[in-house]
């Protein structure tokens, strides 16, 4: 097997192709070849969630996903969430408004999992939200305001009154 | 001034928020030059040994490997690493006990050699290909055992491994304990080695330009790092430039020179080409810094009226292999006791002891989470011994209003402790729950507990406290500001912007552009993020520099408005006349005129340094409610409420977020976190995020924070410490709640199922059939 391979996939809505080292992780490819530096490295073994991206709508730790496996997939990173003129999506705005960011290093991964949760279009309980978000570690926030940001956005999208 | 015009005291959105929610914020690795060579470190796989030889040949033969350097190649320049301001008094300088790479390795994970390679794979292969020949030495992991005669010696200059011992004697302890009718409450309390576990690992990169070395590093303390790199390399300090970009958390680990000196030196060994060191998570846990494990022995003598007659505190602080912040942590811990619960007759002794564990340094709370656990566990036991409610016992004995500490000059201006406890008790419905849980039985039991703490806001008078600031009036009337104090995630830049807008009279904090990235070539000297000091100390220099800038602006305005500077002021970004409020001109008009005036052009700036010669008490408490499953040996926090008096809040939302983070860290410290070492080899056992039990999203209840805003009289903005305080009182509050629920006093952290199994068995709450058969 050659050490390099061409991989074709859709990245943040755009079809792309890249020659990659077959040993490279998706994190490496997104950061080094596409300069998508929202994809963060906190452990590189799938423990912290900082490198999380959406692959065909599902959240994955990109550090333990080979770049070559991206073939034919739709991959979304936080960069793809911001509008062409820098407009924030509702969940990004909620992270700002709810003071759900401190050092910011876990933020991109968290927001992408939140996108997956919100796109399910379901109403989750606090316990369910905690479990769905528990693949991410944060040392700054105690998760409190992150929960509030995700929950408020979920309620807004479902048209429910925010009474908490 | 109209309240609505105030820029402080408002929950403004973070100045760095937009970039952080869009993923644009650049951390050190995002600024990496693509050509940087990879430096990977060969760590010792012995807890204590002398390196006899390093065989580089196999590593050097690997394609892509550029250079291999070992402990036999580094300069013989021992250097200190602690992130302390340099002391001009040699007796107070930090202990220089480290080399860039070490021939005498003192812990499993010590740095022996490096491989520099063109790519990461070759660098890692090179490290694996190195053969190190050791002469093994006996090792010791426990601080008290390390002091015993015949224990393995780590550093020649420190007999019995004692880095330092300090003590105090107040009144006459021995005489006082002879008072008739005293009740003795004695305990041994123990806290574990834990790690900061910021999500961004430490890393840095370095290159040379015009003969000087630049290091971009994930650090909290750029100006201090410059000095340490200079010392380690034997170069003039001004030969070094340190750049601090945004960092992914620090919590004290990055208040130390970590791999900046080694990175800078490796750079000089490859002709100044850029080199990078990126710690893996496993290295962050072991080869950076950890929190000191401390063992306490406390004896308290109580009078029948529940006042404290005498108290003795002894502590042994496990320093690990190198001095780092050294005895400062143990000293802070032992000195907290006489102020927390003042009593006339006290003895305190603190030993900081080298062991063959990872080097312990600063970590959020700097000895106080440990002291708070021991102190508040013992005080709880005192209340119990007297049959008193824990809050009432504390109300009786805790530091009173008006208390003055002669050494720091601190005064307890308000009755903060009692105010905080009253608020907390009310929020959590303490009295009712205490009563409700007073006779718990069965498998699931509930309990409620409290703990208090005090915290110094800065390091005066132990070390220098200084803050410098530079402001520049921009052409649009906004102000660019540079501070030496660093943003590490806590929201410092936003607080500075709010304070500056307030002090100058700008329309919005958004009109202050804080240059977040510190660069020691251009940023005014500041000491960095530690000691919960930044908002307090920056407040002095911001207020002073704003005053100077304002003076220059009004002086220039004099020529344009024909008004005396004394009758003018700046409000809402405009020059106004004080008496009638008339708007004379905007700052933008003034700035444009000043810059482009053909006769008298001026670039309006101000810069100043403020040496702070004050400190301030910060106070608070935690109330925790727990549910304990006796059979499962599991304690769960159901509610946790912190109340802090950290003075006036600059940004309430950010302050609340700080408290959440500290509560989270305290829950981990109390219930789950601990770095484990193999007793037979000294090897770390759980240096990864899977096996080290950091609190996850599922391990917390809702985190509740509240504040008593007593303005701090010494601060220009009425503010004092909040960064570290929330990490202090959580663990003992949980311990005390478990005590109410089960009647079992657990004096060893973390209170995980392993600990509870042993404690519950001992107390007869559970039956261990296996034990009986033995």
What key phrases describe this protein's structure?
heterodimer; A: 164 residues; alpha+beta; Ubiquitin-like (UB roll); DNA polymerase, domain 1; 2 domains; 5-stranded mixed beta sheet; globular; B: 774 residues; Aldehyde Oxidoreductase, domain 4; Aldehyde Oxidoreductase, domain 3; 4 domains; 8-stranded mixed beta sheet; 27 strands; 24% strand
Q: Give a quick account of the main beta sheet of chain B: strands, pairing sense, barrel closure.
A: 8 strands, mixed
Return the structural class of chain B.
alpha+beta
Low-confidence stretches of chain A: none
Name the CATH class of the largest domain in chain B: Alpha Beta
CATH fold-level assignment of the largest domain in chain B: Aldehyde Oxidoreductase, domain 4
Total strand segments of chain A? 5
How many individual helices of chain B?
A: 20
Shape of chain A: globular
Distance between the termini of chain A: 57 Å
Strand line-up across the major sheet of chain A: 2-1-5-3-4
The CATH topology of the largest domain in chain A is Ubiquitin-like (UB roll)
Number of domains of chain B: 4
Strand content of chain A is: 15-25%
Our measurement of the CA-to-CA distance between the termini of chain B, rounded to an integer number of angstroms, reads: 77 Å
Q: Note poorly predicted spans of chain B.
A: none
Radius of gyration of chain B: 27 Å
Structural class of chain A: alpha+beta
Output the CATH homologous superfamily of the largest domain in chain B. Aldehyde oxidase/xanthine dehydrogenase, molybdopterin binding domain
From the 3D coordinates, which CATH architecture of the largest domain in chain A would you assign? Roll
What is the overall pLDDT average of chain B?
Answer: 97
């Amino acid at each position: 097997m050659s050490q390099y391979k061409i991989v074709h996939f859709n990245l943040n809505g755009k079809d792309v192709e890249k020659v990659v080292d077959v040993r490279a992780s998706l994190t490496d490819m997104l950061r080094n070849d596409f300069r998508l530096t929202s994809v963060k490295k906190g452990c590189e073994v799938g423990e912290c969630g900082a490198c999380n991206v959406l692959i065909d709508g599902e959240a994955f730790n990109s550090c333990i996903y080979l770049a070559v496996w991206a073939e034919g997939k739709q991959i979304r990173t936080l960069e793809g969430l911001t509008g062409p003129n820098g407009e924030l999506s509702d969940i990004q705005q909620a992270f700002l408004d709810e003071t759900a960011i401190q050092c910011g290093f876990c933020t991109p991964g968290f927001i992408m999992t939140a996108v997956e949760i919100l796109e399910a279009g379901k109403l989750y309980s606090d316990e369910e939200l905690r479990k769905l978000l528990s693949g991410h570690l944060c040392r700054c926030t105690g998760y409190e305001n992150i929960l509030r940001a995700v929950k408020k956005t979920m309620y807004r999208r479902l048209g429910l009154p925010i009474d908490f | 001034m109209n309240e609505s015009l105030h820029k402080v005291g408002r929950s403004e959105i973070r100045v760095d928020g937009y970039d952080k929610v869009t993923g644009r914020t650049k951390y050190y690795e995002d600024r990496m030059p693509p050509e940087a060579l990879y430096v990977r470190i060969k760590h010792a796989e012995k807890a204590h040994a002398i390196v006899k030889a390093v065989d580089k040949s196999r590593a050097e033969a690997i394609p892509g490997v550029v250079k291999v350097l070992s402990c036999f190649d580094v300069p013989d320049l021992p250097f200190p690493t602690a992130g302390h301001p340099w002391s001009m008094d040699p007796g107070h300088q930090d202990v220089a006990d480290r080399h860039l790479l070490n021939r005498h390795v003192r812990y499993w994970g010590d740095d022996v050699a490096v491989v520099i390679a063109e790519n990461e794979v070759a660098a890692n292969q090179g490290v694996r290909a190195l053969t190190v020949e050791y002469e093994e030495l006996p090792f010791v992991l426990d601080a008290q055992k390390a002091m015993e005669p015949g224990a393995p010696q780590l550093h020649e200059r420190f007999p019995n491994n004692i880095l330092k011992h300090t003590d105090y004697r107040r009144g006459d302890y021995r005489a006082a304990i002879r008072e008739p009718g005293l009740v003795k409450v004695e305990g041994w309390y123990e806290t574990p080695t834990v790690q900061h576990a910021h999500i961004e690992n430490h890393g840095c990169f370095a290159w040379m330009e015009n003969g000087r070395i630049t290091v971009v590093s994930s650090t909290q303390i750029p100006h201090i790092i410059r000095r340490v790199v200079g010392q380690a390399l034997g170069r003039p300090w001004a030969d070094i430039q340190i750049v601090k970009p945004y960092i992914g958390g620090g919590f004290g680990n990055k208040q130390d020179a970590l791999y900046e000196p080694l990175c800078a030196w490796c750079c000089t060994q490859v002709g100044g080409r850029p080199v990078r060191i990126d710690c893996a998570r496993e290295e962050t846990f072991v080869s950076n810094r950890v929190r000191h494990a401390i063992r306490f022995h406390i004896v308290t003598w109580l009078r029948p009226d529940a006042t404290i007659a005498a108290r003795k505190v002894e502590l042994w602080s496990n320093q690990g292999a190198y001095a780092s912040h050294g005895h400062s942590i143990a000293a802070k811990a032992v000195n907290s006791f006489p102020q927390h619960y003042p009593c006339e007759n006290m003895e305190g002794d603190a030993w900081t002891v080298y062991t063959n564990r990872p080097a312990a340094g600063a970590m959020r709370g700097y000895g106080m989470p440990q002291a708070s656990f021991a102190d508040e566990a013992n005080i709880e036991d005192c209340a119990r011994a007297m049959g008193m409610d824990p809050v009432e016992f504390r109300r009786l004995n805790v530091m009173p209003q008006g208390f003055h500490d002669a050494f720091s000059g601190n005064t307890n201006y308000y009755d903060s402790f009692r105010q905080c406890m009253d608020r907390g008790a009310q929020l959590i419905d303490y009295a009712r729950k205490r009563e409700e849980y007073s006779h718990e039985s069965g498998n699931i039991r509930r309990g409620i507990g409290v703990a208090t703490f005090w915290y110094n806001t800065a390091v005066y008078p132990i070390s220098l406290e200084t803050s410098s600031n530079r402001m520049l009036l921009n052409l649009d009337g906004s102000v660019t500001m540079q501070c030496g104090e660093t943003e590490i995630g806590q929201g410092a830049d936003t607080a500075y912007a709010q304070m500056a807008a307030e002090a100058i009279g700008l329309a919005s904090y958004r009109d202050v552009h804080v240059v977040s990235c510190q660069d020691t070539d251009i940023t005014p000297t500041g000491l960095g993020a530690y000691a919960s000091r930044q908002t307090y100390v920056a407040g002095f220099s911001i207020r002073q520099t704003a005053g100077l800038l304002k003076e220059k602006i009004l002086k220039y305005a004099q020529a344009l408005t024909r008004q005396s500077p004394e009758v003018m002021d700046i409000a809402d970004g405009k020059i106004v006349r004080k008496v009638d409020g008339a708007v004379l001109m905007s700052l933008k008009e003034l700035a444009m005129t000043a810059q482009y005036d053909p006769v008298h052009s001026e670039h309006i700036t101000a810069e100043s340094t403020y040496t702070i010669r004050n400190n301030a008490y910060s106070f608070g408490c935690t109330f925790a409610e727990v549910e304990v499953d006796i059979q499962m040996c599991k304690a769960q926090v159901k509610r946790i409420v912190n109340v802090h008096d950290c003075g006036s809040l600059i940004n309430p939302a950010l302050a609340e977020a700080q408290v959440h983070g500290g509560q989270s860290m305290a829950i981990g410290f109390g219930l789950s976190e601990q770095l484990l070492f193999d007793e037979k080899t000294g090897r770390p056992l759980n240096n990864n995020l899977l096996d080290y039990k950091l609190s996850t999203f599922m391990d917390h209840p809702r985190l509740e924070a509240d504040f008593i805003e007593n303005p701090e009289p010494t601060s220009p903005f009425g503010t004092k410490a909040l960064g570290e305080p929330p990490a202090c009182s959580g663990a003992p509050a949980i311990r005390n709640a478990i005590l109410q629920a089960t009647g079992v006093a657990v004096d060893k952290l973390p209170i995980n199922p392993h600990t509870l199994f042993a404690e519950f068995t001992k107390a007869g709450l559970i039956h261990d059939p296996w034990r009986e058969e033995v």
